[in-house]
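Worked example 2:
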Amino acid sequence: MTYAAIAALIFGYLLGSIPFGLLLTRAAGLGDVRSIGSGNIGATNVLRTGNKKLAAATLILDMLKGTAAVLIARYYGMELGLFAGFGAFLGHLFPAWLGFKGGKGVATYLGVLIGLVWQVALIFAAVWLLVAMLFRYSSLAALSAAVVVPIALWFLATPAIAGLFAVMSIILIYKHRTNISRLMAGTEGRIGAKG
C-alpha cells in the first residue's frame, strides 16, 4: 500500500466518521439518538424520533460523505477513490470520537457506490425500495440490496470494485447480526415505528 493510498484511507475515514445523525438530533433538541430504538446513529433510528426531515437529512448527509470521499480522492486516481470510499465506510461504522461505535453503514455504503458506479446505486435503491415496501423492514431491505450489489458489480464494473463491495457487504451484514436475529424471531421494528 502506497503513502497516497494510506492518506486516502485516512481522509475517507475522517470524513466518514462525522456522526450526522447524532449531531442533527442534538441540534434539534431531541437529545442523544443513541438512547432510543436500536441505539444506532443512522437515518432509520433518527426516524424513530418522529422527525422525518431530520431522518432524511441524516440519510442524505451520510450518503454524501461516502460520495464526497470517493470523488475527491478519485481526482487523483481511481485506486485512491476506492481506498477513500472504504475509509468513509469504516469511519461511519467505527468513529474514533464515539468509542468506535457508529452506524450500520447502509447510507454511506450507498454513497460510496454512487461515487464509483452510480448505475449500480440505482439497482441498490430499487432492491431496497421493493423489499421495504413489501415487508416494511429497513434492515431486510438493506441486507437484500447488499447481497445484490456485489453480484451486479461483477458484471457491470471492474473486479476491484466488485471485490471492495463484496468485503463491504460482508461487513454490513455482520453489523446487522442483531437485526437478523430479530427478523428471525419476528421482533424487528418496522419502518416508521417509534421507540
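The CA atoms of residues 50 and 194 lie 7 Å apart. The radius of gyration is 16 Å.
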